[in-house]
Amino acid sequence: MFDKKLRPNYYFSTSGRNFSQFSTIALIVVGLFCTSYFWNRDLEFVRNATTHFVDPNFAHFMNESFFNFNGDGFGGQDFSYILFFFALFVYLLTLKPGNEEKHTLTRIRSGFIILSSVVLFIFNRVIAVFFARVNPKEALVNTRLYTSMLKFGKYSITDAIFKGCFTSGYTTLATLVITLAFISLTSSNLLKIIINFIIFSSWGIIMGITRVITGENYPTDVLWGYISGILLIIWIYFKILRVPEQESGKFKLYSNHGEIRWAFSFIFYGLCVGTVLIGIKFAVINFEWHHPIIIILGAVLAVLTNNNLNNILYGPIKYDQI
What we know:
This protein is mainly α. The protein has helices at about 15-40, 40-50, 55-65, 80-95, 105-130, 135-140, 155-165, 170-185, 190-215, 220-240, 245-250, 260-285, 290-315; strands spanning about 1-5, 320.
C-alpha cells in the first residue's frame, strides 16, 4: 500500500491567505456596486465621452500599438509589451552560469512580471471570446449589436479573439504597470517610492480612461479589467510564485527556471479551460453532437496540464512505502 502525501496546490495554498481573501472580496463588492450604475448606461456613457473629447490626440496615442500590425505605429500600449520583453531579457541574463545565485532577487521579480503578463493575456482573451461582446465603436453605429455586461455578445469566435472587449485587454495588462508601483514600496528611498508610485499608477489609470473616451471599451470593460488584473496578480504573487516567501528564503520553486516554464505551460492550460467554457456556452445556446466531446476533451487536458503546473512548483507526488 502507498499513502499519497498531500502537496500544496496554488488554488488552495494558505500562503498570503488573509490578504488575498480580503482583497478578493473587497474588489468584487466594489466592482458589483459600480457595475450596477453602468449596467444599461455604458453605451450612452461612451457616446457622451466620445462626443465631449473631440480629437483626443493623447488618448489615441495611448491606444495605439506597433504590435497591432494595423499601421498605428508605436503607442502607449507598447509600454506593457516593452515591460514584458525587458523582464524576459533580464530573466534570461540571471540564468547565465554564475548569475543565478548572485541575482536571485532580480530573477524572482523579473519572473513574476513574465508570468503575470502571460496569465493576464491568456485570461483576458479567454474571457473576451467567451462573452464575445461587440466593442462600442461598432455598437454606436448599429445599436442592435450592443449587449450589457455578462450577456453573450454577437461576435463570432474569430472576431471575438481580436475584437472582443469584455474585459478590456489593454486595461488588464496595464494593471501590471500599476503593480510596479507597489513593488517599489520595498525600496528604502522614500522619494523613489513616491515618484514610482505616481508614475506607474497614473499610467495604468490613464490607460483605462483613454479606452473609454476613444470608444474602444465600455466603462464596465475597463472596471473589470482592473479588478480581474489585480486579483490575478495577487494570486500569482501570493499563491503561485509566493514571492515574499521566495525573497525571504522560506520557499523555492521545485523546477529550475520554474517561472518561465510555468508561464508557458499556462498558455496551453488556459486554452484548454477556454475550450471547455466556450464548448459549454455553445452547447447551451445551440446544442450539437460534438459539443460534449469538445468539453470532455478540454477538461481532461486541463486536468493533466494542471498537474504538470503543480509539479513545476512543488515537484512530483511522493509516496510513503509501508
